[in-house]
Please model this.
Amino acid sequence: MESRILPKRDSRSVTENAAADGALAPAVTVAMSVYNCQRFLDAAIASVRRQTFSDFEFLILDDGSTDGSVDIAHHHAAQDSRIRVIARENRGLIASLNELLKEARAPLFARMDADDICRQDRFARQVAFLDAHPDHGVIGTWTEDIDEFDRPFVTTAPEHPVTCEDVLAVIEQRSPLSHPTIMARRDILRAVGGYHVAYRHCEDYDLWLRLASVTKLANIPERLLSYRHYANQISNRHAFAQQYGAAIAQLAYRERQLGRPDPTEKLDNLPPVNTLDEVFGTAGLSRQIRDKVARGAIYSRDAMRGEGFALLIGHVRDGGNGKELWRTVARLVLFGMPGRGLRLAIALLLRA
Model:
């Protein structure tokens, strides 16, 4: 397992640690990156302002929005001195998160998305947990799923694991934390390098995998945040990039677990699938990842319109076949891509 020198833990309370950071430092920094989210932003900010735990600073970074988001943020800032608005040109989510982490004055760093809603006691429950568990660096919560109209949203996703042991049992298969629910010790986040730029659209999962080697992660089994689902959110628009990035993050995690360096740590972009054998020094990885990600990409219209289709054809040339791939021929026609459906059918026939 990779060893790192981390900030020394102690048993002081959050308030005592905040005082150690400076006489005027708050106990918690709430970090929100905003990009064109005016429809949901007012409710999201209001839910933070209503927290029963009030000793926080609230950093709202507007990442070059072209709608009315920045005006909504400034409106709240004028009413609440805990809010500081940072407005600049668009640089993307990862750059924004790292800037917020750098700006954070508090010893605890709480994430909040611009389209979600906090329960009033969220911060109080998380601060109390971290005070009681100084060996834990990150605490998330369960979520209530809602749609764009605040109605219940039905999902079949499993609950996030509760204990650190349960987190470690699933972390190589799926993300164990819901990113907008987490509260973490700021200095541990900084010590592992914050968010890595190469892992766009799965930057949180890569971070959990790196943190799992150096601290404990857990979830409070209470629905302390309403997580919003709607058609245009990032997780829907970039499903293929998330799947591919998650697969590479898992490879990097295994390298670190074996005491080897992470070859993706300093990259600005993830390596193409056909270079993975060389990048990681292990034969067969390119085919393994191509086959794994292609099987997930067949259900995504956006993936089949983009890079996912080339990966799928490569998977078939590697020997992939089966009823689900033949169903994908029909699915491509329904997606409005009959030409790609024909190409897939021909590739499957050639492998038959």
